[in-house]
Write a structure and sequence with these properties.
Blueprint (H helix, E strand, L loop, with lengths): L15 H17 L18 E3 L6 E7 L7 E6 L3 E6 L4 E7 L6 E7 L1 E9 L3 E6 L6 E7 L9 E6 L2 E7 L6 E6 L4 E5 L8 E7 L8 E6 L3 E6 L4 E7 L7 E5 L4 E5 L4 E7 L5 E3 L3 E2 L1 H15 L25 H8 L3 E3 L5 E6 L5 E6 L3 E6 L4 E7 L5 E6 L10 E5 L4 E4 L10
């Protein structure tokens, strides 16, 4: 069912005239871009979660969906008092509560292959591997990280059953990469310059690369791209004046985005030489709206049309190698997004790379169209900082949800999908 959403970002603080125009024209823009996920007509009342999960008893730091079994969809959450809740999304109740970090805050949870192979990270400097098969709740192995920071681990599956685990090390700037399940240390990555503490990391691999790469955000606002095989830095860029709090990267479009304590999401991309290029242009929700209205007025058309790229670059969003390098990079490198309020805890890209969700310090979840970073919706429910967002991986589009975990000890679940399942 198509939802009605509140127009996002600064638009909800703009004048009544701006709100009127946003209601009138933004749906046409979405229609022209082929999106079916939203009906952007202004609703009389704010959107509400489909349902909420309560009972964690502490701030929610991390969320992870595991819906590979369509009859048994799960959501894992890690809390500030060291507990991992396994929520059954059919019953909307906590099916199991795990304690493996000695009461220390759990800052990251994920699964390996199946929901029964859980991996978690706590402020006790331990990464725990769990066996949840046949009702068990056992920690079968652990990795000592030595890190007292808040940098979340990440994994990358190299082949079935074998993973790389990346985590911040004991020293301030170091990142360690280990093979699982063998626990063999692959390498330790330490930058030449003094960049401060490692804040966030993401492992990835593309068809164009011969081995795994790692993106890292540091305390001084820098981004570094590492070649794991060569144990060396490929490129670097200054993305923020403040620490990089979170990042996410699209391995198909070779585009990324990061957030910090400032009022901005920084957009960046990799060129053909794997150089990080950060956009220096800022755009807000109101600025986007104003530009669209000016374009409509100058073109004297009844509806807004999506901007057309040059023939040489029409496919550059999906295949930048088909475009002239400079034109391709301009298409890939979207404007940075100016926010109403400072501070972003986490960024999450939907599995189909169409939507981006941000967890805000201002208690809000914001939804953006990933292709052009258009602000689509603001989800207002929580009464404290939103610390985590996650998109469901359910096979049925109608069953997919967006989850948000907050410092107010609640998890909100939102239906942001409206497309019908494809039939043969």
């Amino acid at each position: 069912m198509v939802k009605s959403w509140e127009i996002a970002d600064k638009i909800d603080r703009a004048s009544s005239a701006s709100i009127f125009f946003s209601c009138l024209f933004l749906p046409a823009l979405m229609a022209s871009s082929g999106s079916t996920a939203y009906d952007l007509r202004m609703s009389r009342s704010p959107p509400s979660p489909v349902y909420t999960l309560r009972g964690a008893g502490a701030p929610l730091n991390t969320l992870h969906f595991s819906c590979t079994d369509v009859n048994y969809p799960l959501l894992f959450s890690g809390s500030g008092k060291g507990e991992i809740h396994m929520w059954n999304l059919n019953t909307r109740r906590a099916q199991k509560i795990l304690e493996g970090h000695s009461g220390n805050s759990v800052i990251w949870v994920s699964t390996l292959q199946t929901a029964s192979a859980l991996i978690s990270q706590g402020r006790d400097m331990q990464v725990c591997l769990w066996d949840l098969t046949e009702g068990r709740s056992d920690v079968v192995d652990s990795v000592w990280t030595g890190s007292v920071g808040f940098c979340q681990c990440c994994t990358l599956e190299m082949n079935p059953g074998n993973y790389l685990l990346a985590f911040a090390g004991e020293q301030t700037e170091e990142i360690k990469i280990m093979e699982l399940p063998s626990k063999t240390l692959v390498c330790t990555l330490v930058p030449d310059a003094k960049l401060g503490m490692v804040m966030c990391i993401q492992l990835f691999q593309t068809d164009a690369t011969s081995g795994p790469l790692l993106l890292a955000g540091y305390e001084d606002g820098s981004l570094l791209l590492w070649d794991v095989t060569q144990r060396s830095t490929v490129s670097s860029a200054k993305a923020h004046p403040e620490p990089v709090m979170c990042l996410t990267f699209d391995t198909e479009r070779l585009r990324g985005i990061s957030g910090s304590s400032e009022k901005k999401l920084a957009s960046w991309a990799l060129d053909r030489q794997q150089n990080l290029q950060v956009s220096s242009r800022n755009v807000s929700g109101v600025a986007v709206l104003s530009a669209l209205l000016r374009a409509r007025s100058s073109n004297n058309v009844t509806g807004l049309q999506a901007p057309q790229s040059s023939p040489a670059c029409r496919k550059s969003t999906f295949a930048p190698q088909e475009c002239p390098p400079q034109q391709a990079l301009q298409i890939l490198l979207q404007d940075c997004v100016t926010l109403v309020n400072p501070g972003v805890s986490q960024l999450c890209l939907r599995g189909d790379h169409k939507l981006l969700a941000s967890a805000g310090w201002d208690h809000r979840v914001r939804i953006f169209g990933w292709k052009k970073l258009q602000p689509l919706a603001v989800l207002k429910y929580h009464t404290d900082m939103v610390q985590s967002v996650a998109f469901s991986d359910h096979q049925d589009p109608r069953q997919r949800l967006l989850a948000a975990g907050s410092k107010d000890q609640r998890i909100s679940l939102w239906s942001v999908f409206s497309e019908e399942p494809k039939t043969a």
